[in-house]
């Protein structure tokens, strides 16, 4: 079931929480609403569910207008951030709740309810906990029960609010993979809210980046990471190195630092954005780039060696970060305080007069 | 653009479904609550306001400034003040002991703290009067050192103190429970004495709660009737409380006078209530940074 | 180090012991002794006299009237309290804070003033009273008046117990219930009520204690007619003024018993809630 969001505006008193949101969420896909806190992503999710109403705009499920439909009748599955398990009911009673409250005519018989609950608990691999109470479960277990409860009504749309927000890193990763495989198996349309870009990029088919109540960009994770539309998306999706300068004669320059820009660029003020893996480190400047640094810190933990660089003879707001392989690191043994030069391979140029960034390639 | 001008806010779409609230029962609970509050609280109160307002300023002033009435204001206010001061000290002590220490019988002590709220005031009244009577359990000892409690203004203080014991205890207790041990530990490790730490670190956090509890206790004491009349002696100009004055005027079928005095009492009570609400809101904000 | 290190203020044995001692002595003098006195006085002339006092015609009538008043007042205020708490904790609307403050008025107003409010409105000279008088309906100086002022005096208790709890629990569970298709009544019956039942019970018990024990307000509107409009607390006063102290304390012992039950229920409720 696809979801269409048309012209949604939402106010909390004078604060505009959502600003003219238009969005299509394709059938059977896993979509992430990604943004910092206060960006309106949870509000949007609650509007899709019908837990919140918008001042303007429409919500359509597979072309059917559900804007005026009460949550109760939208038959969506919703997983709350803090699970919202009924604390006085057992796990099995929690999962059975949706079936138990059906009108008598539609309600399945007791044995069938029991059977379906067992099936759901098996699906989330927690059938041995059927008679426990929520307070006796770990965070990850609660999350799975909340999911089983939401799935009991066989919804075609599943909405999840920060589903892994309250879990520790290891359980988080595990549950993420499990949710992905569950989704691939059952193919419902899912939307989840997260502020963790790694989670969004790893888990989803489509990412919606939001900030200040507006949609910044909608794209597949790969596209989004490779070609961010705006400075905000760039900043939000991981570490970025920035050179702010003035462009003249095809060169961007600030203090001692300069980089030759490959193709014709107009004279303007601009910023060159570079991902850590799009930069090489050398002992000497090249003909294309002169970006002098002092090594500020070296971190050898992880798949790559992470080197933090402090500009030498020019300025930037945050330190640069570059990753080099362990073998490179062992061959060269850079030390803290050493001087070195950065050489860009791929970069993204933002100029005052350009709406979209220009992706530059030095090879 | 996080905020926008109010004028940018679109008018609610005409023809949109009326009930946009997710949880059910807004209309029903609003209706019942407003009906109940209007009928039970607001209607009788407005009746008093109109009755008192209708009697003309001069007569109103004449009634409420009658020397016997003025004497009862003084007795009531002074006794309530003394009782709530006692409760501030006693309440702080009890809250401290109940939160900080473990000892056998603590649960019982904690539970009995609410006795004055649960015990009918008339029962409290005759009990205290009997205890402090000349030949009573306490009275006979106090008589030996020349202290008379029953049928004196001191008796009023005792009755008021008894009926409002729980206020300070119950407002200070949660604040004490929430105190993080780190501040104290830091101060103690810097070499401060216990008394200094209490004065400089703990008291500044506790006193707003003590004031709230004290104000609640004061408000309650101002209106106390049942517990007081049995022990007060009720002699005009000396030991009549204001609630009794209203009652006396009623028994004389002097409804205008009773209404006028009641209006004064209620005005003061409502102001106190407002003060307590505002005060509580402010210091809760400070504590929880809301 | 020779001296024992204490971690927090007042942890040294000397301070600890003297503060506990002081607290215990004061509590015994201020609270336990009065409680004991009630039962000692009530039984001072033996069990036979005690039972005789309780079974006295007027005392029995006062007990009956008091229970009748409580039976009408408590359910009414329970229903009102639940609706009000639901309203102010589950919805935002203009005037919400005013409503929460208004509900505290009966706590702030002197019971005598409360009684007077009703007497002025519904008494023989009052607007409503005069109008009702035309139909020979008299509310004041009879049981309806007693019920009305008791409702006034006890109306905040249930709401005051429920509001903080429901605020703290939040409405996520109820929202989850709605998403799963529960109707309004199912929501209340199966999700809200189980979560608030202990606080509700305590609120009801408090309402009951106050309804049974209200003195000032009731004494203004009752007329103190023995065997007719005399509630138990008023009866205590009458007996005491008749110099029948033993009888007064016998009647008081019943009220003190209700107070003790109230305290016990509170302790149990707090224990249950701390386990959640």
UniProtKB/TrEMBL annotation, chain A:
CDD domains registered for this protein in UniProt: ABC_CysA_sulfate_importer
InterPro entries tied to this protein: AAA+_ATPase, ABC_SmlMolc_Importer, ABC_transporter-like_ATP-bd, ABC_transporter-like_CS, Mo/tungstate-bd_C_term_dom, P-loop_NTPase, Sulph_transpt1, TOBE-like
Domain ABC transporter: 3-237
Keywords for this protein: ATP-binding, Cell membrane, Membrane, Nucleotide-binding, Sulfate transport, Translocase, Transport
A molecular function (GO) term: ATP binding
Pfam families reported in the protein's UniProt record: ABC_tran, TOBE_3
SUPFAM superfamilies found in the cross-reference section: MOP-like, P-loop containing nucleoside triphosphate hydrolases
NCBIfam families: 3a0106s01
Full protein name: Sulfate/thiosulfate import ATP-binding protein CysA
Organism: Marinobacter zhanjiangensis
From TrEMBL, chain B:
Database matches in InterPro entries: CysT_permease, MetI-like, MetI-like_sf, Sulph_transpt2
Compartments in which it is found: Cell membrane
Pfam hit, one: BPD_transp_1
Keyword Membrane (UniProt): yes
Keyword Nucleotidyltransferase: no
Membrane topology reported for the UniProt record: Multi-pass membrane protein
Coiled coil: none
PROSITE patterns xref list: ABC_TM1
Keywords: Membrane, Sulfate transport, Transmembrane, Transmembrane helix, Transport
Family listed: Belongs to the binding-protein-dependent transport system permease family. CysTW subfamily.
Role description: Part of the ABC transporter complex CysAWTP (TC 3.A.1.6.1) involved in sulfate/thiosulfate import. Probably responsible for the translocation of the substrate across the membrane. Part of the ABC transporter complex (TC 3.A.1.6.1) involved in sulfate/thiosulfate import.
Subunit structure, as described in the record: The complex is composed of two ATP-binding proteins (CysA), two transmembrane proteins (CysT and CysW) and a solute-binding protein (CysP).
Entry protein name: Sulfate transport system permease protein CysT
Automatic annotation (TrEMBL), chain C:
Keywords tagged on the record: Membrane, Sulfate transport, Transmembrane, Transmembrane helix, Transport
Membrane topology: Multi-pass membrane protein
Domain of life per record: Bacteria
Keyword Transport applies: yes
Main location: membrane
Listed transmembrane segments: 20-40, 60-87, 99-121, 141-159, 199-225, 245-269
Domain spans labelled ABC transmembrane type-1: 63-267
Entry keyword annotation includes Transcription: no
Pfam families: BPD_transp_1
Localisation: Cell membrane
Matches recorded under InterPro entries: CysW_permease (IPR011866), MetI-like (IPR000515), MetI-like_sf (IPR035906), Sulph_transpt2 (IPR005667)
Function: Part of the ABC transporter complex CysAWTP (TC 3.A.1.6.1) involved in sulfate/thiosulfate import. Probably responsible for the translocation of the substrate across the membrane.
Oligomer and partners: The complex is composed of two ATP-binding proteins (CysA), two transmembrane proteins (CysT and CysW) and a solute-binding protein (CysP).
The protein's name in its UniProt record: Sulfate ABC transporter permease subunit CysW
Native source organism of the sequence: Marinobacter zhanjiangensis
